[in-house]
Design goal:
111 residues
């Protein structure tokens, strides 16, 4: 239970998530992200903030425990089933990825 902070919550403090971008992900035998494919519009880092070349593969150096989101499963056509991962490419900043379990596609979620 969350205690009452004693003040009204401001709508200005709530931010919308940015639109997710589809990314190419190669998985290992267990289905976990192992390699990321960069394009001009996705995964734009190559260490020290330099842009990655399009088509460059980046190994996943660190993978945090995944979490799953299942919503609206009772509404046909509106269901959401995703598996999220916080990953760190070998030569870039951490990213949040998710796999849409209904379509199998992978996305990068920015905040």
């Amino acid at each position: 239970m969350v205690s009452d902070p004693g003040r009204e919550t401001s709508a200005r403090r709530v931010r919308r998530l940015k639109e997710p971008r589809e990314v190419d992900v190669e998985t290992d035998a267990t289905g976990l992200p192992a390699m990321l494919m960069s394009t001009r519009t996705t995964l734009p880092w190559r260490g020290a903030g330099r842009p990655a070349r399009a088509g460059r593969r980046q190994a996943v150096a660190l993978l945090r425990r995944p979490w799953r989101v299942d919503q609206l499963w009772w509404r046909p056509g509106e269901a959401v089933s995703r598996r999220y991962f916080r990953v760190a490419p070998a030569d870039g900043p951490p990213l949040t990825l998710y796999q849409d379990l209904l379509s199998g596609r992978w996305y990068q979620q920015e905040y």
